[in-house]
Amino acid sequence: MMGKKQPRADYLMQNKISHLILLLLLYTPTSFAEKWSMDFCKSVSAETNINLPMNVDSVTELRNTFCLPGQDGPTFNYNYVVAESIRSIPDSQRDIVKRSWCTTPELLDMLDSLSGVSFSYYRDNGDFVGKFSFSQKNCN
Protein backbone atom coordinates (compact mmCIF):
# COMPACT_ATOMS: atom_id res chain seq x y z
CA MET A 1 0.00 0.00 0.00
CA MET A 2 3.03 2.25 -0.23
CA GLY A 3 2.22 5.43 -2.06
CA LYS A 4 -1.57 5.00 -1.91
CA LYS A 5 -3.71 7.51 -0.13
CA GLN A 6 -5.31 6.29 3.05
CA PRO A 7 -9.05 5.63 2.58
CA ARG A 8 -11.19 8.43 4.05
CA ALA A 9 -13.05 6.11 6.43
CA ASP A 10 -9.78 4.83 7.91
CA TYR A 11 -8.49 8.39 8.28
CA LEU A 12 -11.70 9.49 10.03
CA MET A 13 -11.57 6.50 12.38
CA GLN A 14 -7.92 7.15 13.30
CA ASN A 15 -8.80 10.81 13.86
CA LYS A 16 -11.70 9.74 16.09
CA ILE A 17 -9.48 7.40 18.10
CA SER A 18 -6.80 10.08 18.51
CA HIS A 19 -9.37 12.51 19.92
CA LEU A 20 -10.70 9.87 22.30
CA ILE A 21 -7.23 9.00 23.57
CA LEU A 22 -6.35 12.67 24.05
CA LEU A 23 -9.59 13.33 25.91
CA LEU A 24 -9.06 10.39 28.23
CA LEU A 25 -5.43 11.21 28.93
CA LEU A 26 -6.29 14.80 29.81
CA TYR A 27 -8.83 13.84 32.46
CA THR A 28 -7.53 10.64 33.98
CA PRO A 29 -4.47 9.69 35.99
CA THR A 30 -1.60 8.14 34.06
CA SER A 31 -1.79 4.83 35.87
CA PHE A 32 -4.66 2.84 37.31
CA ALA A 33 -3.32 0.32 39.78
CA GLU A 34 -6.71 -0.99 40.89
CA LYS A 35 -10.37 -1.14 39.92
CA TRP A 36 -12.21 2.16 39.69
CA SER A 37 -14.92 2.88 42.22
CA MET A 38 -18.24 4.09 40.89
CA ASP A 39 -17.55 7.53 42.44
CA PHE A 40 -14.18 7.78 40.68
CA CYS A 41 -15.71 6.74 37.37
CA LYS A 42 -18.43 9.37 37.77
CA SER A 43 -15.83 12.04 38.52
CA VAL A 44 -13.83 11.14 35.38
CA SER A 45 -17.04 11.20 33.36
CA ALA A 46 -18.05 14.59 34.80
CA GLU A 47 -14.64 16.06 33.94
CA THR A 48 -14.84 14.65 30.43
CA ASN A 49 -18.36 16.00 29.93
CA ILE A 50 -17.24 19.56 30.69
CA ASN A 51 -15.73 19.71 27.20
CA LEU A 52 -18.63 18.04 25.42
CA PRO A 53 -20.24 17.96 22.97
CA MET A 54 -17.16 17.61 20.77
CA ASN A 55 -16.92 16.95 17.06
CA VAL A 56 -14.81 13.86 16.62
CA ASP A 57 -14.90 14.00 12.83
CA SER A 58 -17.15 15.33 10.08
CA VAL A 59 -19.92 12.79 10.81
CA THR A 60 -19.55 12.04 14.53
CA GLU A 61 -20.04 14.05 17.71
CA LEU A 62 -19.29 12.78 21.22
CA ARG A 63 -22.26 14.03 23.24
CA ASN A 64 -21.59 12.66 26.71
CA THR A 65 -20.08 9.95 28.87
CA PHE A 66 -21.49 8.20 31.89
CA CYS A 67 -20.79 5.26 34.19
CA LEU A 68 -22.96 2.27 34.98
CA PRO A 69 -22.32 -0.46 37.52
CA GLY A 70 -20.80 -3.54 35.94
CA GLN A 71 -19.94 -7.05 37.00
CA ASP A 72 -16.30 -6.22 37.67
CA GLY A 73 -16.58 -2.52 38.51
CA PRO A 74 -18.06 0.35 36.54
CA THR A 75 -18.55 0.39 32.78
CA PHE A 76 -17.51 3.64 31.09
CA ASN A 77 -20.03 4.61 28.40
CA TYR A 78 -19.69 6.94 25.41
CA ASN A 79 -22.73 8.38 23.60
CA TYR A 80 -22.18 9.57 20.05
CA VAL A 81 -24.44 11.29 17.54
CA VAL A 82 -23.73 10.52 13.90
CA ALA A 83 -24.85 12.01 10.60
CA GLU A 84 -28.27 11.07 9.28
CA SER A 85 -26.57 9.15 6.46
CA ILE A 86 -25.02 6.65 8.91
CA ARG A 87 -27.22 3.55 9.11
CA SER A 88 -24.99 1.15 11.07
CA ILE A 89 -21.60 0.88 12.74
CA PRO A 90 -19.25 -1.13 10.51
CA ASP A 91 -17.38 -4.07 12.00
CA SER A 92 -14.17 -2.41 10.82
CA GLN A 93 -14.86 0.56 13.12
CA ARG A 94 -15.50 -1.75 16.05
CA ASP A 95 -12.24 -3.58 15.32
CA ILE A 96 -10.22 -0.37 15.07
CA VAL A 97 -11.59 0.99 18.36
CA LYS A 98 -11.03 -2.30 20.17
CA ARG A 99 -7.52 -2.70 18.77
CA SER A 100 -6.69 0.85 19.87
CA TRP A 101 -7.90 0.21 23.42
CA CYS A 102 -6.14 -3.15 23.59
CA THR A 103 -2.76 -1.88 22.33
CA THR A 104 -2.45 1.66 23.72
CA PRO A 105 -0.85 1.25 27.17
CA GLU A 106 -2.85 4.05 28.84
CA LEU A 107 -6.16 2.83 27.44
CA LEU A 108 -5.42 -0.79 28.28
CA ASP A 109 -4.53 0.28 31.81
CA MET A 110 -7.86 2.12 32.04
CA LEU A 111 -9.68 -0.90 30.61
CA ASP A 112 -8.05 -3.10 33.28
CA SER A 113 -9.57 -0.79 35.91
CA LEU A 114 -13.11 -1.04 34.53
CA SER A 115 -15.66 -3.72 33.95
CA GLY A 116 -15.59 -2.54 30.33
CA VAL A 117 -16.29 0.27 27.90
CA SER A 118 -19.38 0.80 25.79
CA PHE A 119 -19.97 2.94 22.69
CA SER A 120 -23.52 3.88 21.64
CA TYR A 121 -24.42 5.71 18.42
CA TYR A 122 -27.60 7.67 17.67
CA ARG A 123 -28.80 10.00 14.96
CA ASP A 124 -29.63 13.57 15.92
CA ASN A 125 -33.34 12.71 15.92
CA GLY A 126 -32.72 10.08 18.62
CA ASP A 127 -32.88 7.00 16.37
CA PHE A 128 -30.55 4.27 17.60
CA VAL A 129 -27.80 3.31 15.13
CA GLY A 130 -25.70 0.78 17.02
CA LYS A 131 -23.71 -0.15 20.08
CA PHE A 132 -20.67 -2.19 20.93
CA SER A 133 -18.89 -2.99 24.17
CA PHE A 134 -15.81 -4.86 25.26
CA SER A 135 -13.64 -5.50 28.29
CA GLN A 136 -10.01 -6.28 28.91
CA LYS A 137 -10.90 -9.98 28.56
CA ASN A 138 -11.64 -9.34 24.87
CA CYS A 139 -8.09 -8.08 24.30
CA ASN A 140 -6.48 -11.50 24.63
Query: Rg to the nearest angstrom?
Result: 15 Å
Structural class: alpha+beta
How is the largest sheet built, in terms of strand order?
Answer: 1-2-3-4-5
General shape = globular
Helix content: 25-40%
Report the sheet with the most strands, covering strand number, pairing sense and barrel closure. 5 strands, mixed
Summarize the structure.
The protein is an alpha+beta fold and 140 residues long.
Question: How would you characterize the overall build of this protein?
Answer:
- The protein is an alpha+beta fold.
- 38% of the residues lie in helices and 29% in strands.
- The protein contains four helices and five strands.
- A five-stranded mixed beta sheet has the order 1-2-3-4-5.
- The protein is globular and about 40 Å long.
Protein traits:
140 residues; alpha+beta; 5 strands; 4 helices
How are the SSEs placed, and which strands pair?
Layout: H1 8-27, H2 38-49, E1 54-57, E2 60-70, E3 73-82, H3 91-103, H4 105-112, E4 116-123, E5 128-134
Parallel strand pairs: 3-4
Antiparallel strand pairs: 1-2, 2-3, 4-5
Helix pairs in contact: 1-3, 3-4
